[in-house]
């Protein structure tokens, strides 16, 4: 059988990344992500697997984000026992993220059972903490650019993609073909992460297209952060920053420290109120080999890159709740990033009614989330069984993103020395994927197609 590729997720959508790569003797899965977001998508996680997990030789994992890794516990539960290859940074983040994902699944099942809100009795979690542990036991960490052999006569390696800690492009040589999968592509010239490495060639390329139809705003992304901190100081109120635990929280901490040092903001107490973000920050600090040159210089000068001057960690729920009785000014970073759950909720309930409060959203806010309602100007908001009036100032920074925009994707593609034989566009909403396909065909003159879910293509 000649080598072939089947798109089993993140085709026409941005979650559930899963691509089957096979020849007559070997079957590999590139990424093993969870579908997230709307209910129709989440239900796909419950469909029977379209590939028998026991038939897979190995998984090659681009990075730790749950939409790329979160189905691994289920794969292990359903009989997969092969190695999961990923970089060391990814392996360390998985140790935090997979048990957390399992915990959320268990909580959701328990909620349904308590409130009898599921068609299934009893409602079961998609996977459990034990399944997450089983998957973690299969992880084989490797260095960037270190050749690995996921099966006889097959070679693979990871190349820095600059997206989050540990994130890599997956390069695989199978059946005489060289396949390159971008995973999620990072950005150029942003703090903490190195720029994406360039790749010289590929027979077949899979490229993500999350921002295939958009450019990130050109303004200095720190300006909004400065304005928000200054307002909190002036008003002697709290600045609440809902933030994802992995990646975004570290960027904000890094920026706060840099801005303090540059004298652009006053030094307010900063509370990192998320056990997962605390762990993730330790993982980021523990991988200096992945830091960009500015961050290395700060470390060489003896600085703690992710610690503003008056830095506090809230590990326990009691630490977190104590802030309800503490007056500002100060800054609280807590999850979840879209205010759909997590400790940020009780801070919002307590402080949204106060006009002295500032809330800064620093990430994408999906339709239907509290984050979206607040940024669209809601005057009151439901949370934790109450209707909470909104008198706080709501601010938004759209400049923080871990994904390359259209211009940056094209910049990376221009690094290829010759056009790939074929380019498939994955990991994008239909409009974004179509726009990127047009740019690749039009601007670069390459053969390109938008990948379709379930589609199988010969390589
Ligand atoms: Zn990602």
Compute the gyration radius: what is it? 22 Å
Shape verdict? globular
> Average pLDDT, to the nearest integer?
94
Ligand list: zinc ion
Largest sheet: 7 strands, mixed
The strand order across the widest sheet is 6-5-4-3-2-1-22
Q: What percent of the residues sit in helical stretches (DSSP H or I)? A: 25-40%
Describe the structure in your own words.
The protein is of the alpha/beta class and 459 residues long. The protein has helices spanning 39-44, 66-69, 72-77, 88-115, 129-136, 222-235, 248-261, 275-285, 293-300, 317-322, 344-351, 370-375, 406-413, 430-444, and strands at 4-9, 18-22, 27-30, 58-60, 84-87, 139-142, 148-151, 154-160, 168-174, 177-181, 204-208, 238-242, 270-272, 311-313, 330-334, 358-361, 380-383, 386-389, 393-396, 422-426, 448-450, 456-458. The strands form four sheets. The chain has a seven-stranded mixed beta sheet with strand order 6-5-4-3-2-1-22. Helix 4 runs antiparallel to helix 5 and helix 4 (88-115) runs antiparallel to helix 8. 47% of the residues are buried. The mean pLDDT is 94. Bound molecules: zinc ion. Residues 63, 65, 68, 163, 184 line the site of zinc ion (ZN). Zinc ion is lined by residues 63, 65, 68, 163, 184.
Structure described in brief:
It is built from 14 helices and 22 strands. It has helices at 39-44, 66-69, 72-77, 88-115, 129-136, 222-235, 248-261, 275-285, 293-300, 317-322, 344-351, 370-375, 406-413, 430-444, and strands at residues 4-9, 18-22, 27-30, 58-60, 84-87, 139-142, 148-151, 154-160, 168-174, 177-181, 204-208, 238-242, 270-272, 311-313, 330-334, 358-361, 380-383, 386-389, 393-396, 422-426, 448-450, 456-458. A 7-stranded mixed sheet has the order 6-5-4-3-2-1-22.
